[in-house]
Write a structure and sequence with these properties.
Elements lengths: L6 E8 L2 E7 L7 H12 L19 E7 L7 E8 L6 E2 L5 H13 L9 E8 L4 E8 L23 E5 L18 E3 L2 E7 L3 E6 L11 H5 L2 H17 L12 E6 L7 E6 L10 H12 L17 E6 L2 E10 L6 E9 L1 E9 L30
Parallel strand pairs: 2-3, 4-6, 11-12, 13-14
Antiparallel strand pairs: 1-2, 1-17, 3-4, 4-5, 6-7, 7-8, 8-16, 9-10, 10-11, 12-13, 14-15, 15-16
Bound molecules: (1E)-4-oxobut-1-ene-1,2,4-tricarboxylic acid.
(1E)-4-oxobut-1-ene-1,2,4-tricarboxylic acid binds next to helix 2 and helix 5.
Length: 383
């Protein structure tokens, strides 16, 4: 912290999301103090986050806390925190594969890892779930570059590719790939597949919730009846998935699937958790792709699988997200071998953030539900 209260951090775009990246050692060691500080920096608890640096959307109210890893199987620890916009909430109950894209370059920028002369491959432990991911990104002359030729849907222009390879993502938040113990469940008269391959997601058919699946996020955001149905579906699914009362939580997400319209495998509209996503999350997409590959997965009959392989082309409101999922369906229950995705990221700003007034530390945080207190490893190990 600077003498006048500034906290060192970097603003980065990771995939289709944006957030503040901190070194763990630049934040308070106590989770409660850290959370109060981050809520104040972001300006959460106000719809336009006018008194903070948040982007007035859940996709731009994210935080990565990064440190050198103490585990043998990882180089870097990455704790993801999702902050609320209207509500002053903060939770570590989910991963974020988009923000993850910025973690390797950030760690190289801050000297946590030694970068290679051309490219760098590093092992990142997602502290939220304990999953280790391998990230490969360009570092000519040992310095991360962000410029490149790779386009990802939902982001203007192109950037340097960042390859993310996941293993052991099944059961990230719930302990199992199929947390209800079944491939299909019936909730509110709607057939769903509740899955957790990196992100707990409820997959249902768009038509079963009264939409075609081609509506824009803005149109969906104005549909109060749909919002009520999604809310009810995810709350019931949360209980079945062993997540308890999820009314104040950011998981599970809901993805409504339809037949593809643009040459992809499947059409999707995703809700985080009730607000429509402008694209789809990375691990959300990995979970949806896995659901479609499962024998009996809801919506698989709508999907158009091309040549045999593991490449699933997910259509979303702003384009396509291609994920590569290797699933062994000969095992019972099926076993996920690996998953991969390509993203880009960009350093947007580096400097110091100045928090405004914070909630008193001995009082519960405003708008923070009891079950939103961090339940995972509370702090990334200081570097
Ligand atoms: O699923 C949004 C995003 C995400 C999460 C959300 C993500 C993922 O688009 O891995 O990336 O689900 O809240 O950043």
């Amino acid at each position: 912290m600077t003498a006048d209260g500034g906290i060192r951090c970097m603003l980065m775009r990771g995939g289709t999301s944006k957030g503040l990246f901190f070194l763990a050692c630049d934040l308070p060691g106590s989770a409660a103090e850290r959370d109060a500080l981050l809520l104040a920096i972001m300006g959460s608890g106000n719809p336009i986050q006018v008194d903070g640096v948040g982007g007035a959307h859940p996709l731009a109210a994210k935080v990565a806390v990064v440190s050198r890893s103490a585990s043998d199987d990882a180089d870097i620890d990455y704790l993801f925190l999702q902050l609320g916009v209207e509500e002053a909430t903060i939770t570590d109950r989910q991963n974020c594969g988009n923000i993850l894209a910025g973690v390797g370059p950030f760690a190289a920028e801050r000297g946590l890892i030694a970068a290679g002369d051309e490219s760098t491959t590093t092992r990142i432990r997602m502290v939220n779930s304990g999953t280790v991911v391998t990230a490969t990104f360009a570092t000519p002359h040992g310095v991360p570059v962000y410029e490149g030729e790779t386009a990802i849907a939902g982001v203007p222009g192109t950037g340097a590719p960042i390859l993310l390879r996941f293993a052991d993502t099944a059961g990230s938040a719930t302990g199992s790939l199929l947390p209800t113990g079944r491939v299909r469940d019936l909730i509110d008269g709607v057939e769903v597949t509740c899955i957790d391959n990196g992100m707990p997601v409820v997959v249902a058919r768009s038509a079963d919730l009264g939409i075609s699946g081609s509506e824009s996020p803005d149109v969906l955001a104005g549909d109060d009846e749909l919002a009520a149905r999604v809310r009810s579906l995810r709350i019931a699914a949360g209980k079945l998935m062993g997540l308890g009362d999820v009314s104040g939580l950011s998981v599970p997400k809901t993805t409504l699937v339809s037949a593809p319209r643009d040459g992809g495998t499947v059409g999707t509209r995703t809700f985080i958790p009730v607000r429509p996503h402008t694209a789809i999350g990375v691990l959300g997409a990995v979970s949806v792709a896995t659901a479609l590959l499962l024998p009996g997965g809801v919506g698989a009959e709508l999907a158009s699988f091309g040549s045999p392989g593991h490449r699933i082309d997910i259509e979303h409101p702003t384009g396509h997200l291609i994920v590569d999922v290797e699933l062994d369906t000969s095992a019972e229950p099926p076993v996920v071998r690996s998953a991969g995705v390509v993203r880009t990221a960009r350093r947007l700003f580096d400097g110091f953030a100045y928090p405004g007034p914070r909630p008193a530390l001995d009082l519960p945080l405003a708008g923070r539900a009891a079950d939103q207190r961090p339940i995972g490893p509370a702090d990334a190990a200081p570097s």
